[in-house]
Design a protein that fits this description.
Blueprint (H helix, E strand, L loop, with lengths): L1 H13 L4 H4 L26 E5 L2 H4 L12 H6 L17 H15 L3 E5 L2 H4 L9 H16 L3 E7 L5 H4 L7 H18 L5 E6 L1 H11 L10 H25 L5 E6 L4 E3 L4 H14 L1 H9 L4 H7 L8 H7 L6 E4 L4 E5 L6 E3 L20 H13 L4 E6 L16 H19 L4 E6 L19 E4 L4 E4 L1 H12 L4
Parallel strand pairs: 1-2, 1-11, 2-3, 3-4, 4-5, 5-7, 6-8, 7-10, 10-11
Antiparallel strand pairs: 8-9, 12-13
Helix pairs in contact: 5-7, 9-11, 10-11, 11-13, 11-15, 12-13, 16-17
Bound molecules: ligand GBH.
Length: 486
Amino acid sequence: MMNARFSRRSFARLLGLSASAASLPLHALGSAPPTGSDLAGGRFPEGFVWGSATASYQVEGAVREDGRGPSIWDTFSHMPGKTHNGDTGDIADDFYHRYLDDIALMKELGLKGFRFSISWSRIFPTGTGAANPKGFDFYDRMIDALLAAGIQPYCTLYHWDLPQALEDKGGWQNKDTAKAFGEYAGVVAKHLSDRAKQFMTVNELSSFVDIGYREGRHAPGLRLDRGRHAQVAHHAVLGHGLAVQAIRANAKPGTKIGLADNPAAICPVIETREHLEAASRAFREENAKFLTVIMEGKYTEQYLRGLGADAPKFTDEELKTIGSPLDFVGLNVYGPHWVRASSSPKGYEMVEWPASYPHMLSDWLHVGPESLYWVPKHTHTLWGVKEMYITENGCSASDVVNNQGQVLDTDRVMYLRNYLTQLHRAVSEGVPVKGYFLWSLLDNYEWADGYDRRFGITHVDFRTQKRTPKLSAEFYKAVIARNGLA
Ligand code: GBH
C-alpha cells in the first residue's frame, strides 16, 4: 500500500500534477483502473500468450521454390504501378530459408506463441487437386523448430494469397472458391494438427474483400459494383464457415478453431452511457457483413435493407455454415473509429478526423489505445465470446539505424505501452483475452506499401537480410518476462 501510494505521488510529480491530483485514483490519471491483486501493477493473467504475428507472402520469399504455384499477390505486385516502388514479395524476409535464425530471435524474446500463415499455393499449387508434399515439408520443419523452442504455433490458413489459378476462375466471386478453401483447410488441419493446436481460417475479411474486390488497391485489384462486391463478401464468410467445419471434421481432438478478423474498431467519443450505447450498436452494424454474421448466423436487417436489390444471394443453410461455432475469436486491432450518439435513424454517427489527429507513419494508422479495450469489450458483451486473442496489434514508424547500430523507436514503444495499458484494462474487468500477438516480429512486405512501411520490432536490412532488434524488441522482451507492464 505504502509503495503504491508513494509511486503514485512520484508519478504525479513526473507529470507536473499537484498534490491533490496525486490522491486521485490511478485511472483518473489516464492509467489502468484499480484491479484485483493478481492483476495489480499491470500484470496479465497467468499463462497469457505473448506472441508475434507474420504472414506467408509478407515474409517467406522463395516464391518459385519447391513447386509453389503463383498467387494473386505474385501477379498483382508484378503489375506496373500497383505497389510502392514496384516492390514485390519475391524475396521479402527470405524467411523460407532463414526461419531457424528467426525462431532463435523469437526464443531470445521469450515468445510463447507465433502466428504465421500457410501459403495455399505451396500446398495446392493450382488451388485444388493433389497436395504438393514439398509444400508441407517447409511448414512441418518450421513447426517442429517452434515446438523445440517452446513456442506454440498459431496457424492462419488464408492471409490474402489466393492461388492465381482460382482467381482465373473468378476468385472469391465464384462460390467454388469457398468450397476449395474448405477442402484445403481440412487437408492442412489433418496434416498439421498433431502438432499445431490453434487454427485461424481467414485473416481480415474486410481487407481482402473490400480493398481487393471493391477499391482495387490490393490483389486482385478489382473494382466491382456494389452487388457483386456484396456477393464476394458473402462467399468469403461462407469460405470461413466451410473451413471451420472441415477443420472440425479432420483435426485431431483438442484442436481450437477461430479466425483473425479486423472489425471496425468502434470507440465511444466520450465514455458516457449514450455514447457507449451508440458505440455498441455501431460495432454490430458496421461489422454486419463479416464478424456479426459469423457470430449471429444472420445478416442484420439494417445491412440487407441498406443494400436493397444489391443484397447478396444466400440460403439458410449457408447462414448456418457461416455461423458455425468457434472456439475463439482473434481480433486484429490498429486504429480507432470514434463514434457518438446521434438522432439519425441509425442512432450513431462516425466522427470525422480533426486535421491534427495523430497517426503513426502510415497515414491510416490513427493512434487510439482505447481500441484495444473496446474491440474485445464489444465482442464479449455483444456475443458472450469466452476466448479471444489479439491476433495483431502494432504500428509503422520511421525507424533509422543510428551510428551505434541501434534503432531507438521510442514512438513504437509509446504506442505499444499505451495500447497494452488499455488491453490490461479490459482483462482486469474480466474480458477473456488469452493472448496478444504483436505485428510484427520483422519488418516485412507491407502489401501495396512495399518495403516502405516498417512494422517490425526487429529491423531488417532488405539488401543484406541483416536483423537488428529495435528498442521495441527490448521493451516487449521485458513485458513478456514480467508478464505485464509493471
Ligand atoms: C493488417 O492489416 C494485416 O493483417 C497485415 O498483413 C498488415 O501487414 C498489417 O495489418 C499492417 O498494415 O491504403 O491507406 O487504405 C491492417 C488493416 C488494411 C490497414 C489495409 C491498411 C490499407 C491502407 N489494413 N489498409 S490504405
